[in-house]
Amino acid sequence: MLIEARELYRFHHLGGEEVKALRGVDFSLAPGEFVALVGPSGSGKSTLLDCLAGLDDPDGGMVTVEGRPISRQPEAVRRKIRRGMGLMRQKGNLLPHLTVTENVLEAQSVVGRGDLSEVLQLLEEMGIAHRAGACPPALSGGERARAGLAVALAARPRILLLDEPTGEVDAATEAAIVNLLRARCAAGVGLVAATHNPALGKAASRTVGLAEGKVLHA
Ligand SMILES: Nc1ncnc2c1ncn2[C@@H]1O[C@H](COP(=O)(O)OP(=O)(O)OP(=O)(O)O)[C@@H](O)[C@H]1O
Ligand SMILES: [Mg+2]
Predict the structure, then answer these.
(1) Which positions of the chain have pLDDT values less than 70?
(2) Whose C-alpha lies nearest to ligand 1, atom 30?
């Protein structure tokens, strides 16, 4: 398994109030799987992705990535494990003072690579090659989403954890992104995409539904 999560609990505390974002979630991801993570706003999708990526720690339970525990590990250990992952967070994964090209090159450098022609090809595939020299604040919402996706794919990760990868894109771009993600999965990448987009749901090999922090079982 690429990812195994057992009995995840995550409670957020806000002004004396407790939000139970995850309430006993089990999840696993195999190579080649395309999982659509769906559920109403606030159901815990982003919280789950953050726990799977080791960017957040569950209050209960444990996540293992390719057999290695990532929850409650020192940051150096998590960072090493994350080299095999491409992440796209809802809040964005772009450095605002770098151009789109520089952002993708930076993401590649994490795994010791720096291939400008591959970066430009990736931007071409995303349909944002014409914005390669722009910085994120100057991009439209859809362009930003595609640049974020290019960053997530840059290091050729074995695992992709994407939060709303088709947010704010038009139908043609959406189809291009779906095809590109399916091709990665066909090549063995495991993908989890949190989404409200039915097209991504249709493209997925499996759908996991969350409601109020729990996995729905059909
Ligand atoms: N840092 C935080 N502090 C307090 N509460 C939080 C925090 N992060 C998330 N929550 C709460 O936890 C719950 C789950 O949030 P989460 O972001 O995981 O939902 P989501 O399914 O991704 O929603 P959306 O579809 O709107 O992105 C929500 O009630 C949210 O308000
Ligand atoms: Mg979310």
Answers:
(1) 218
(2) 42
